[in-house]
Task: inverse folding
């Protein structure tokens, strides 16, 4: 190798100063896994308290801090950064680019995250406790009635937003400018497509979230009344602004997951993805619709009936492109030659459970029925089927799928399969009964509950402990693979995998595609 | 703590232990088969319609997938097909779901319009959410408006596991909302502090209570009985402890209940003009304390979410500053202005109680007339 092939710097400075997309991707992934364990620990406290009726372990106020931090850490600390990490690792390798377009900004967008979460976590130690108003932080509970730590929470949200916006700009710039010659838009792997669209969503809505928290800051410290009726404001305005961010946010989380599944299912079906073009159009349609459905989170606030009808119809429409995606994945499997390695198992788990989450989503879209579902455990079950079995399962599949490529070492397949089955079963024991208690009338975010909900809650808690513990197995498997996994000699690792990243050695050298690859005639997806 | 019995019970997954593990939405029909609310039945039917459509689609999608997993596995030596698009099929599975959605939207729209039909109500009740209780005010009752607060009736001992939990644990209140059967009742729903949400599943009413705004909802309950619900919008520490209890009674029973309520209000007003003994005030004050103060200030005045009352400089210091805190609340904290929530007698009683209980033996007796003159400044 000539001396123009620089390796990484040594020691801590490699990680602090790095502008290498692989290093930054790695840091994002480890950081998000640490946050996943932290958010998971909060969830364990919640489920332990809900193990049986009565207050046992924590006080109601602390319970609310746990539900709030669980949601914030999982959404902003675990799921979102994990997909940014995946994008960093994969997008340049998938489009034949040497790195991200804006490598220094890339370093910065990662390194502002750890201090932000350190600050958010430190609110637990502050007087008055951590934020206790739910991850949706509805005013005025989060303004007039909030603990003093809310100011730190607002600052943390601002930093996360800055990080996300910088990451998104980087992804847009990379995809638009750095594709290898011949890599046309309609040849890009679906993962790149879903991330491109996600990045536009992020750039559009993160400033809206920043606006919402800034208005809170003004209300709390500078005497404004954006969200206080007593001063001429409106608490419901907060909800409109929050969900104008919050609904696209849901798709920000799930679209990259769609991209991952669209890479993995064809690989283990040994058959091209069915309906590539319609997948792209469906993704764009979902992204567009995500901007005009936000008030379906607010059916009970007392909107005029015309508004209610509009948001109901628009929300129902999302079932169409989402259905197209599910049908395409199933048809990709149809008459393939299937094998069931761990990434495929998690992808099939995703397909089944995400579809169930989609069904409950359709039920929730029906406004008059939502008057009975709203803010109950039915909703909690619904969004965990989408967030955990959707986003987290697909992320897990992605790690197993690309880990051998990244590290040049194979994970333990048996342990991976065990991890899948424990996760799958544990997940369903946790969240399936929550549909029942929700329909039977259990509100969400309560630290204690009426006796008729006791059995299903106990079941749910047991499932949560199983699911939580199984993630330690995952951690062990990944570390064992990195340290002592069997070496992978093949570039392709998986015989059915397609795409430019599989033309590189395993592990890929520190710098890849310094000269652009030649794109063959056959589409890269 | 997680005791051994609970763990043993967990090991057995005691699904049989509780016969009433409800797995579905309230049907809107009583156990005896009588309709509770027509709207509730309609919403339940709509819910089940969408559910069954989802089941049918699910069986189709998962069926194809499972068949594929079974039949199209590499270990069976199949050669993978290479088809990757089919315009006709793709158009079909875009258009057909769209048509199914239209089929769902039609009944959903008609039900929604009924939910919003607040006209022609026979009586109106103003519901106000407070941290952490509900206030009910009957607006168009004959004579004076009747209003009262409805607090959680479950004891702290039950909640903290030192006493057995009753059948209606966390779903019972000291004073329920009482409405007449087969009467269209309009609810005007608002809040005093943060957002709450008033929900009674069997009656199929859920509406957010938003400070500064008034929402409308309605019901016509066809069966006498007791219906229970809870606050469904996170409203602070004790969000899980502000239940709703609705008693639906016959018209006659309602009228006599209303008359009794009006009589009690008059008696309270009369009481305010009298001088009560220390013991009367202390005993009444203890009840008021347990209903209104205990959640934040503790069973022994030791504090918690709120400051300690035992030995506090406010409760043992000057009377005016003590009354100021109780009557006007403390701005920027969870301490509410109880002057608007409690009668003068009750304020006097709870002030007397706080100044003499928990070792605060000041010996002070506060009369309703003191509260009236404090309020008048």
Result:
């Amino acid at each position: 190798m000539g001396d123009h092939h620089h390796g990484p710097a040594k020691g801590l400075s490699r990680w602090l100063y790095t502008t290498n997309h692989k290093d930054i991707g790695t840091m994002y992934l480890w950081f998000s896994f640490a946050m996943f364990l932290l958010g998971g620990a909060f969830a364990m406290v919640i489920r332990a308290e809900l193990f049986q009726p009565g207050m046992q372990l924590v006080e109601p106020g602390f319970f609310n801090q746990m539900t709030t931090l669980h949601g914030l850490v999982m959404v902003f600390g675990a799921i979102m950064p994990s997909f940014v990490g995946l994008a960093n690792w994969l997008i340049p390798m998938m489009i034949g680019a040497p790195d991200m377009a804006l490598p220094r900004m890339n370093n910065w967008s990662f390194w502002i995250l750890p201090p932000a979460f350190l600050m958010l976590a430190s609110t637990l130690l502050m007087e008055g406790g951590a934020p206790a108003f739910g991850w949706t932080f509805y005013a005025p509970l989060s303004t007039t009635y909030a603990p003093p730590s809310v100011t730190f929470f607002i600052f943390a949200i601002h930093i996360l937003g800055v990080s996300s916006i910088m990451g998104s700009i980087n992804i847009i710039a990379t995809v638009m400018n750095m594709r290898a010659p011949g890599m046309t838009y309609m040849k890009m792997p679906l993962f790149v497509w879903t991330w491109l669209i996600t990045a536009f969503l992020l750039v559009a809505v993160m400033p809206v979230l920043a606006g919402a928290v800034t208005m809170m800051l003004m209300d709390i410290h500078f005497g404004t009344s954006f969200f206080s009726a007593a001063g001429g404001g409106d608490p419901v305005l907060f909800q409109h602004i929050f969900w104008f961010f919050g609904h696209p946010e849901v798709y920000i989380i799930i679209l990259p997951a769609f991209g991952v599944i669209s890479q993995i299912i064809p690989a283990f079906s040994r058959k091209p993805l069915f309906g590539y073009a319609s997948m792209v159009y469906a993704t764009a349609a979902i992204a567009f619709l995500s901007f005009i459905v936000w008030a379906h989170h607010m059916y009970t606030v007392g909107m005029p009936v015309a508004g209610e009808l509009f948001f109901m119809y628009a929300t129902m429409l999302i079932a169409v492109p989402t259905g197209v995606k599910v049908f395409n994945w199933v048809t990709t499997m149809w008459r393939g030659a299937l094998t069931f390695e761990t990434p495929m198992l998690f992808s099939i788990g995703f397909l089944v459970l995400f579809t169930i989450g989609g069904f409950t989503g359709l039920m929730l879209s029906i406004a008059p029925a939502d008057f009975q579902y709203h803010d109950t455990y039915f909703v909690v079950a619904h969004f965990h089927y989408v967030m955990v079995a959707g986003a987290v399962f697909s992320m897990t599949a992605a790690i197993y799928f690309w880990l051998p490529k990244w590290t040049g070492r194979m994970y333990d397949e048996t342990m991976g399969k065990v991890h899948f089955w424990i996760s799958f079963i544990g997940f369903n024991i946790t969240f399936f009964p929550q549909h029942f208690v929700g329909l039977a009338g259990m509100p969400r975010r309560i630290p204690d509950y009426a006796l008729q909900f006791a059995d299903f809650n106990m079941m749910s808690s047991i499932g949560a402990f199983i699911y939580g513990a199984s993630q330690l197995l995952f951690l062990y498997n990944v570390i064992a693979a990195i340290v002592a996994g069997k070496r992978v000699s093949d570039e392709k690792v998986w015989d059915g995998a397609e795409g430019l990243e599989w033309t590189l050695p395993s592990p890929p050298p520190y710098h890849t595609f310094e000269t652009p690859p030649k794109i063959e005639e056959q589409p890269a997806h | 703590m997680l005791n051994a019995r609970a763990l043993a019970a967990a090991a057995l997954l005691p699904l049989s232990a509780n016969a009433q593990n409800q797995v579905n939405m309230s049907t809107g029909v009583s156990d005896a088969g009588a309709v509770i609310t027509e709207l509730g039945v309609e919403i339940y039917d709509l819910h089940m319609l969408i559910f069954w459509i989802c089941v049918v689609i699910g069986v189709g999608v998962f069926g194809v997938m499972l068949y594929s997993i079974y039949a199209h596995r590499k270990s069976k030596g199949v050669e993978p097909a290479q088809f990757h698009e089919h315009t006709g099929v793709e158009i079909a599975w875009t258009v057909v779901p769209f048509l199914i959605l239209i089929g769902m939207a039609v009944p959903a729209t008609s039900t929604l319009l009924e939910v919003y039909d607040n006209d022609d109500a026979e009586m109106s009740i103003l519901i106000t959410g407070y941290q952490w209780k509900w206030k009910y005010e009957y607006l168009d009752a004959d004579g004076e408006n009747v209003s009262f607060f409805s607090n959680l009736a479950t004891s702290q001992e039950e909640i903290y596991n030192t006493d057995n939990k009753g059948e209606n644990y966390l779903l019972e209140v000291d004073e329920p909302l009482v409405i007449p059967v087969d009467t269209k009742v309009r609810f005007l729903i608002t809040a005093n502090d943060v957002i709450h949400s008033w929900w009674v599943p069997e009656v199929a009413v859920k509406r957010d209570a938003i400070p500064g705004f008034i929402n409308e909802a309605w019901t016509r309950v066809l069966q006498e009985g007791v219906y229970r619900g809870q606050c469904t919008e996170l409203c602070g520490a004790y969000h899980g402890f502000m239940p709703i209890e609705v008693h639906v009674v016959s018209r006659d029973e309602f009228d006599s209940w209303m008359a009794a309520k009006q009589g009690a209000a008059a008696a309270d007003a009369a009481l305010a003009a009298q001088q009560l003994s220390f013991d009367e005030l202390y005993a009444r004050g203890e009840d008021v304390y347990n209903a209104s103060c205990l959640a934040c200030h503790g069973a022994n005045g030791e504090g918690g979410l709120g400051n300690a009352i035992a030995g506090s400089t406010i409760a043992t210091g000057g009377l005016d500053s003590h009354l100021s805190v109780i009557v006007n609340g403390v701005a920027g904290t969870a301490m509410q202005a109880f002057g608007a929530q409690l009668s003068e007698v009750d304020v006097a009683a709870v002030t007397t109680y706080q100044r003499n209980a928990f070792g605060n033996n000041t010996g002070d007796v506060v009369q309703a007339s003191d509260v009236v003159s404090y309020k008048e400044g």
Summary: The beta strands of chain B are 123-130, 133-138, 146-150, 177-180, 184-191, 196-200, 205-209, 215-220, 225-231, 243-249.
